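To close the section, here is one more complete example, presented without commentary so you can practise reading it yourself. The ligand is zinc ion.
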Amino acid sequence: MLKKGNKLYSILTGSCPKCHEESMYKVKNPYLLGSIFSMHDKCSHCGTRYKIEPSFFYGAMYVSYAVGIAFAVAAFVIAFLILGAGLVNTFITIVATLIVFLPVIIRLSRNIWINLFIHYDPRAAAR
Ligand SMILES: [Zn+2]
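Output:
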């Protein structure tokens, strides 16, 4: 299911949205917080510039809101509905989940944001 050419591949792996050949990030691990925002300027495989315009990735904040809600809902379903935790414990679980997964949420949001604007191009991948 997760193959190059599928948008999900670029979103989940953080690879170039146009050719899916290499990572947009200098350091792949989002939990190395010092370099969480450091990205390559452009793809060395197809030459796509990631920062389409100045402050392009500020828009990812809108996406991170939605992604954060998704994580919070997942935490709620698991803690409250499946494990039967009380409301206070469920709240603590949701907050902890959002903190622990924040680096992942930030990266996912950037990946989704750039994939809204740049689409996969098989010719760029073949170059
Ligand atoms: Zn590329």
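Once you have examined the tokens, check your reading against these statements. The mean pLDDT is 95. The radius of gyration is 17 Å.
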